[in-house]
# Entry
Amino acid sequence: MLHANSEGLAPGSDVVAVNGGIGIDIIGVDKIFGASGANGFRALSPISLGINAGEFVSVVGPSGCGKSTLMLMVAGLMKPTNGQVKIEGSGLTGPLTEIGIVFQDHLLLDFRTAEANVLLQGEIRKLSMGPVRKRAAELFESLGLQASADKYPNQLSGGMRQRVSLARALVHNPPLLLMDEPFGALDALTRLQVRRDLETLWLQQRPTVLFITHSVEEAVGLSDRVIVMGPSPGGVVEEIPIQLKRPRPLAFGESPELRDYANRIYAHFERLGVLH
# Structure
């Protein structure tokens, strides 16, 4: 099993913080479910893609185009039918362990407080808990969760639960953060705030981020580069570098450039029949 390069994450370590991310190479990767040949279901067309260490890359596309499948293969949780994923130049042969993952569902344990849910990351990894508690406190402060540390998930709003989920994914300072529609269940205003929180935290340490979303605005607002995918079986339509200063404005009306990038992506979806 390949482990990401993650100095400071050894069991019992007194050091948790790791700055920077890891490089990823996706080489001719595709996915076919079921029988091979005409009877199989092709979920993903062959994709080749490089992600630089510390880069924030979003993948945007219609439902069913294989975005989440691609993320699971990068995590080593699903094996590609063809092709290979490389992490820091080494072939991925099993699940990556030193990563953070955030899903649309917060997946918090109802019987643990917000703080205990976050600290579970250190307990499972058998890390020295002093630095983990310190890092958790820093994240709670950054995310406005100080007053919620002792509350249980059912006592928190949807936005607060997702912030706790983000803190849990980041508390061990992973070099790679994988996010699958993490804001999908939030209301519009909460999505904007959590988006700002994520950008702020990413700027502090620059882990590599692969962000899966249906939202063109989120992709453009957060990313160094946006990967536009077409309908199933998904393939890469265009890679768009987002060359704008950070932090990015939350409202597209404040930035014609953001709106231009979004319109460029929407034009692809109109051409492909995703939008009519």
In short: The CA atoms of residues 68 and 180 lie 7 Å apart. Strands lie at 24-33, 41-51, 56-60, 82-87, 90-91, 100-103, 176-180, 208-213, 225-229, 236-241. The longest helix spans residues 188-205.
